[in-house]
């Protein structure tokens, strides 16, 4: 057991190293910047400890024989058909499988973009259900907002990212169209978005096992974007409306309109214009415009809270879910947190894991938030670790820019709540 504790490549080692790292980085009196921050940090460590206790209680024997942790291999999608547009091929390094649709093909598929086929409306686009000549069901995203230049920029930016993304938990782009407008054509996700199922008017279709599946799959998709995709991608708009569900409730991350590639050597990206969705913003994003992996982790934490509670990130009274949930998370009041429509029909071990993961992901200081590779371990627990392959790609733990900045700065919970309220006022004042 002692030997395993020392081994940072074992699952137990990874988690214990995290706890040790948190303890040494956060609660020593020398580097604690204020009393309140120290209290805040102790709370985060105690969240990790709670998780760890849970882990220890159930899996001590099996853990000893676990193989080192590996990242599952992602199957590559096979090519469908050569793109018909050499220009787009050259400029955007298109996947060879993407189709260039004519306007008349898209009109035929969507009943001339009829209202009956309108299945989604976002800030930038209208999305129509369609059926291609070969019978394939599609979602056609027609960019509607902004000047011609803004539409082109938005289209190219989303296309440039989504065309490089290929994972079971990301939306599947089939092709695009640039005749008579800007169109992106995706495989249809028949159940629509997680947001529409969680908050829609239909009877509750999402039992706990489906919600847990959605949480796991979304974490896998986001891990892929951050760490396993050809480019390092920050999504920047993770929310329930941007998680689509296939017929068997497999989640697919969609809407790469705000996504950013971060070159390896960049610590972070800075933005001056606020884009995204209020209620999901990480504090370092609205305070400093910082975009990196940890800003997505925060949004993912809010998404987990939505899944647990069935509440919106910001409700009709403009109350923030994070502010509502924080005291309940801190006191581990699971019964008060859980969506009343679930009753007691949930697996308490799974819900404990999801609640603790959410608590960590919404920590105001990015350094206290886990990375997506840690989130996947936290959410899946020992069942996942037991299935891990022998391959272990050791990665040096590099701190993200926002971790460095927030660590260096005194940022306590009173300031955080003040900032959150201030930004809420700004967001809703126009
Ligand atoms: N492939 C798809 N299958 C089914 N429904 C989809 C698909 N793609 C999008 N939708 C629906 O359309 C909605 C809007 O899509 P999307 O988020 O891509 O648009 P947007 O204008 O970029 O939105 P936002 O304002 O969030 O940026 C989604 O929430 C979803 O309900």
From TrEMBL:
Belongs to the protein kinase superfamily. Gene3D superfamilies: Phosphorylase Kinase, domain 1 (3.30.200.20), Transferase(Phosphotransferase) domain 1 (1.10.510.10). ATP binds at residue 141. Its EC number is 2.7.11.1. Keywords: ATP-binding, Cytoplasm, Kinase, Nucleotide-binding, Phosphoprotein, Serine/threonine-protein kinase, Transferase. Interacts with ARAC5 and ARAC10. The keyword Transcription does not apply. This is non-specific serine/threonine protein kinase. It catalyses: L-seryl-[protein] + ATP = O-phospho-L-seryl-[protein] + ADP + H(+); L-threonyl-[protein] + ATP = O-phospho-L-threonyl-[protein] + ADP + H(+). It is found in: Cytoplasm. GO terms for molecular function: ATP binding; GTPase binding; protein serine/threonine kinase activity. Residues 113-385 form the Protein kinase domain. The keyword Acyltransferase does not apply. Its main location: cytoplasm.
């Amino acid at each position: 057991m002692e030997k395993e504790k020392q081994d940072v490549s074992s699952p137990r080692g990874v988690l214990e190293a995290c706890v040790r790292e948190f303890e040494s980085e956060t609660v020593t009196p020398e580097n604690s910047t204020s009393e309140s921050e120290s209290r805040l940090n102790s709370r985060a460590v105690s969240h990790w400890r709670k998780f760890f206790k849970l882990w220890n209680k159930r899996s001590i024997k099996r853990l000893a024989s676990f193989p080192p942790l590996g990242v599952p291999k992602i199957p590559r999608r096979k090519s469908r058909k050569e793109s018909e547009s050499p220009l787009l091929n050259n400029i955007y390094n298109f996947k060879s499988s993407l189709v260039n649709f004519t306007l008349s093909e898209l009109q035929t598929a969507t009943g001339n973009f009829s209202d009956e086929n309108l299945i989604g409306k976002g800030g930038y686009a209208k999305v129509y259900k369609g059926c291609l000549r070969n019978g394939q069901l599609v979602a056609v995203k027609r960019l509607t907002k902004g000047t011609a230049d803004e539409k082109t920029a938005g289209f190219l930016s989303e296309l440039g990212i989504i065309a490089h993304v290929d994972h079971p938990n990301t939306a599947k782009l089939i092709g695009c169209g640039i005749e008579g407008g800007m169109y992106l054509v995706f495989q249809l996700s028949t159940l629509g978005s997680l947001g529409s199922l969680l908050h829609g008017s239909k009877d509750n279709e999402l039992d706990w096992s489906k919600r847990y599946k959605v949480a796991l799959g979304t974490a896998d998709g986001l891990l892929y974007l951050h760490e396993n995709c050809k480019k390092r991608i920050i999504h920047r708009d993770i929310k329930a409306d941007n998680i689509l569900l296939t017929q068997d409730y497999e989640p697919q991350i969609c809407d790469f309109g705000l996504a950013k590639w971060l070159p390896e050597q960049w610590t972070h990206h800075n933005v001056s214009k606020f884009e995204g969705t209020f209620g999901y913003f990480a504090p370092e994003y609205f305070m400093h415009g910082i975009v990196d992996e940890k800003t997505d982790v925060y949004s993912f934490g809010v998404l987990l809270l939505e899944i647990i509670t069935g509440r919106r990130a910001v409700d009709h009274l403009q109350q923030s879910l994070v502010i509502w949930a924080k005291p309940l998370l801190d006191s581990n009041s699971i019964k008060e947190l859980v969506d009343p429509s679930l009753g007691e029909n949930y697996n308490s071990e799974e819900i404990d894991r999801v609640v603790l993961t959410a608590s960590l992901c919404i920590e105001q200081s990015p350094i206290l938030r886990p990375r997506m590779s840690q989130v996947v371990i936290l959410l899946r627990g020992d069942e996942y670790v037991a299935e891990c392959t022998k391959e272990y790609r050791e990665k040096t733990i590099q701190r993200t820019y926002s971790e460095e900045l927030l660590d260096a700065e005194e940022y306590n919970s009173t300031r955080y709540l003040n900032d959150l309220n201030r930004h809420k006022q700004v967001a809703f004042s126009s």
